[in-house]
Write a structure and sequence with these properties.
heterodimer; A: 144 residues; alpha+beta; three-stranded antiparallel sheet; 9 strands; 31% strand; globular; B: 234 residues; alpha/beta; three-stranded mixed sheet; 5 helices; 25% strand
């Protein structure tokens, strides 16, 4: 019996679990079936914002295009839009953030996730940065 | 780079500044998305004096009832608007300098946090030039005492492009503030240049000083261009 998994499938499932980053410091992590993406802001962004006092979450079932605002994160007197890297429909939001917005500061890339989107076009994931590319990007930005 | 300063004629409706602000932000975002297709963005600052208006911040969206809005509007003497900026309810009106810097924070080496700090420091410096000693406290804005606020601030960011900004009271009728819990801070009061004994200063004059101080504070800005509103493309 041939139990070998085709290499292409292996490569795909490996990259599905890796976070990808945008130039505006959002991250997106695909589910193992590749159908939904969890979105949040990076540690770099959370530090740049300061203490988060309020998070505006999207409504469930909202349809968004890639680059649309999916909500906002408010820190001392500044409200910063969070953009979705992918088009799709909002299927879940992190209600913990309504009670405890500071969760974003404590764990921006873990418990501080913002929303989950059912992805309409997987092609939107192209052009996003891997964790190491993003690290280089932010280090370069600091150096400027 | 040159900072473009657009001073709107007094008194303007809030909606006029808001529309101009949107055009500038849109131009900045378009450039950021496709630098090869659009003219290079110039940092801008709008200064204005508004007809009486109460504005609310983002997190208050939908929370002000029709009765509350009617109360605020005082028989048509004031307007009411929700905005996308941070912060809560505040008042803008005659005698108050409103300044909206539209900048790409990345071009000036700023983060949202350091930008708010820069606005506060620039306000402190401007007040000091008129003999008013001010400070920052645990609450945002600029204060004469820990309980008396002279300038409010609230900013919106999209892809690090700023909009909204500050409101500095020169000779604002402070009665308008007594009707609200400004910025959601109970037990605090609002003051002005006039209230502090600095009289006969116009909003335009203080506006020029503030813009000059912003140009000095912003990395990369060398000079100011005074620009008419209709010079900004639609």
């Amino acid at each position: 019996m041939n139990t070998k998994v085709p290499a292409a499938m292996l490569a795909r499932s490996f990259t599905s679990w890796e976070k990808k980053y945008t130039q505006d410091h959002e991250w997106i992590e695909l589910s193992s079936d590749g159908k939904t993406g969890t979105i949040g802001i990076s540690t770099y962004a959370a530090t740049a914002l300061g203490d988060v006092v309020y998070v505006e979450l999207p409504q469930i079932d909202t349809e968004l295009g890639a680059g649309d605002a999916l909500g906002a994160v408010e820190s001392v007197k500044s409200a910063s839009d969070i953009l979705t890297p992918v088009s799709g429909k909002v299927v879940k939001v992190n209600e913990v953030l309504e009670e405890t917005p500071a969760t974003i500061n404590k764990s921006p890339e873990g418990d501080g996730w913002i929303a989950q989107i059912e992805i309409a076009d997987e092609g939107d994931m192209n052009g996003l940065m891997s964790a190491s590319e993003y690290k280089d990007f932010t280090e370069k930005a600091e150096g400027d | 780079m040159r900072l473009q300063h657009i001073h709107l004629p007094s008194l303007s409706p809030y909606t006029r500044a808001s529309a101009l602000q949107d055009r500038l932000v849109h131009a900045c975002l378009a450039y950021k998305a496709s630098p090869s297709l659009h003219p290079v963005l110039k940092p801008s600052i709008i200064t204005a004096q508004f007809h009486p208006v109460y504005t609310c911040g983002r997190r208050e969206q939908g929370t002000v009832s029709a009765e509350q809005q009617a109360y605020l509007c005082a028989d048509g003497r004031a307007d009411f608007h929700y905005t996308l900026r941070g912060g809560q309810t505040t008042f803008h009106g005659p005698g108050q300098l409103v300044a909206y810097p539209i900048l790409d924070l990345k071009r000036h080496g700023l983060t949202p946090r350091t930008y708010v700090s820069l606005l506060e420091r620039t306000l402190i410096k401007t007040c000091a030039q008129y003999g008013i000693s001010t400070m920052t406290t645990e609450h945002p804005g600029v204060w004469v005492t820990p309980d008396s606020k002279i300038a409010a601030l609230g900013v919106h960011l999209r892809r690090n492009i700023t909009s909204h900004g500050i409101g500095l009271n020169i000779n604002t009728d402070l009665w308008w503030f007594s009707r609200i819990v400004a910025c959601g801070l109970e037990g605090k009061s609002t003051t002005s240049f006039q209230d502090q004994g600095v009289v006969d200063k116009s909003v335009e004059e203080v506006g020029q000083a503030f813009v000059q101080n912003m140009a000095t504070a912003l990395e990369g800005v060398e000079s100011i261009d005074e620009v008419a509103e209709d010079a900004i493309p639609p």
